[in-house]
Task: structure prediction
Amino acid sequence: MIAENICSVRERIARACVRCGRDPGQITLVAISKNRSAEEVGEAIGSGITDIGENKIQEARLKADNRDLKVLRWHMVGHLQSNKVKDAVRMFDLIHSVDSEELAQEIDKQAARMDKVQDILIQVNTSQEESKFGLRPEALNETFLMIKALKNVRIKGLMTIAPLVDDPEKVRLHFRRLKELRDRIYELRMTDGGRLNLSMGMSDDFEVAIEEGADIIRIGRAIYE
Ligand SMILES: *Cc1c(COP(=O)(O)O)cnc(C)c1O
Result:
């Protein structure tokens, strides 16, 4: 089941890439494995998945302790509380959910203690829903520059979570918005030349996200159900 699902997700990625002239090899597929057993994750890895995403530290750690799971990269996609930062820095290769300067400072502090430079994405609330985490788009540039000044944090891009809707076309504007925000950062020459990846698109809308420039897609149900 999981193997077939992954196959079909990869085909859908390839078709979306053909539509917009992109190279599927440039798109990172993260299997979001929250609430999935180590056995299921093992099956996904057996089918070529290299990147595993979790939204709770505790659950990720249980799986990371499982020596049978050969995960190449761990992604933290859930909201991160400052008292959990130490554990997050210890175990995740990329934290997608940095949404304040304070959180970035705490990550910087813990990473410095571990002699690590922590890769992060800045989460933006592109749909401006009150219930969602993420920076307001208007606050992005200022926060970006403050986080960029931290020595043990490296900004690798931006992340957004689109609203749940029945028709993926309805979230296209939010993905487009994230790309515009990224391109604006390029225009203002706020980076040192490194690429800023866009983490956007889930099971119901990843094809639209790819068409709008997603570099990292986060897929749970389409892989595991
Ligand atoms: C659960 C989750 C996903 C995956 O969602 P699916 O709809 O199951 O593909 C992606 N991103 C985040 C932040 C999530 O919490």
In short: The CA atoms of residues 79 and 97 lie 6 Å apart. The longest strand covers residues 153-159. The pocket of pyridoxal-5'-phosphate is lined by residues 32, 34, 55, 77-78, 161, 202-203, 218-222 (CB under 6 Å).
